[in-house]
Every structure is written in structure tokens, then in C-alpha cells.
Amino acid sequence: MIATIAFYLFATLTIASALAVIFARNPVHSVLWLILSFFNAAGLMLLVGAEFIAMLVVIVYVGAVAVLFLFVVMMLDIDFASLRRGFTANLPFGIIIAFVLLAEIVVALFARQAGPAFANHQIAAAMQPNIVAIGQLLYSRYLFAFELAGLILLVAMIGAIVLTHRSRRDTRPQKVWKQIARRPEDAVRLSDPGVGEGMKL
User: Which of 31, 1, 36 is nearest to 16 (CA)?
Assistant: First the structure.
């Protein structure tokens, strides 16, 4: 019973937070709603006994979202003064969200011990840990898909680097080789102009 209630709780909050990501006007709020969605998805993974995937969702995805949060703050023109003004107004709502997450963790722990959801019998104990089973599948049956995913991520990383370091015509880039090749006599010139003559460039 508690597993069924936990499933509907996590699923409802995952869908609601995903919709909030789409409809939130502030990009920072969208990222925070996305983090909440990831936590609830991790709770769903715990219910089906995939604790390794649940930890991956929390560590990898939430960690990546933190990096995304930094990129959003750096790239977008956000009024930090208005965000600070809204901090005290949204503090009660944030405390409520924190207590909801804490309650979900407690419910997930009890629901995991209660047995699988939507089933009247216990699942037989696994002969090997989840990490071992996932590793054997990744490097045997799904090796080609695993390598292809790594290649796609490599291409995306190279593309991001190329787009970031594109040449701009409105700036004067530093030419290091010219600075190194410059001689001291070309950099400094002593001149003693006469009275009323001025400097000649």
C-alpha cells in the first residue's frame, strides 16, 4: 500500500515539476524545478529497486544541472537585485519544498522495504548487484550503442568549444607571437624635442 502511494506521489510531482520547467518565466526558476523533477525521478527508480540508477540521476544529472545553472546566470541578463528582493518573499515556499523532499526520502525508504509496487509477491533476491549487471549489459549486448553515445557526446563537446572560440571582428585579439618577437628598441624610444617643436609620431 505504501509503495503504491509513494509511486503516485513521485509520479505526480515529477510531471508537475516538469510542467513548471516549461511554463516558468524565470530561467533560474526553471532550473530549480528541473532539479526537483530529477529528485522525484530518482525516487521512482528507488521504488523499482534500481538504486544505482537513482544515485546516478542525483549525482550526474543534478550535478550537470548545477553547471547549467551557472551557464544560465553567466549568459543571460538577469536582474540580481530583483532576485534578492524576491528571496524573502519566496522563503516560505522554499522551506515547504525542502520539507516535501525530506518527506519523499522518508517515504521512499519505507516503501522500498515494503516491497514492489503493484505486486502481491516479493521479488526474488538478485544473484548479483545492479552495478555488475549493468556493466555486463553495457559492455556486451549494448556495446555499440554505448560507444555511439560516447562519440555523440564527444562531437557535442567539440562543437561547443568551436562555437565558444569563434573569431569576432568587433574586438582586437591579442597576438602573442608579435609581443614575443618585439625588440626592446622597438618598444621604447627616447626623444628630446626642442622648445616649441613637440613630438613626432
Answer: 36
pLDDT at 118: 47
Give yes or no for a contact between 65 and 71, defined as CB atoms under 8 angstroms apart. no
**pTM, full prediction:** 0.52
Pairwise CA distance, residues 138 & 49, whole Å: 19
- Quote helix, strand, coil % in the chain, to nearest 5: 70, 0, 30
Looking at CATH, the fold of the domain delimited by 1-118 is given as Four Helix Bundle (Hemerythrin (Met), subunit A) (1.20.120)
Q: Give the separation between CA 111 and CA 100, rounded to whole angstroms.
A: 16
**Domain ranges within the chain, ordered by starting residue:** 1-118, 128-167
Residues 6+ apart with CB under 8 A from 123: 49, 115, 116
Q: What does the mean pLDDT of the chain come to?
A: 77
Could you tell me which residues come within 8 angstroms of residue 21 by beta carbon, excluding any fewer than 6 positions away?
A: 30, 33, 34, 37
pLDDT at 56 over 80: yes
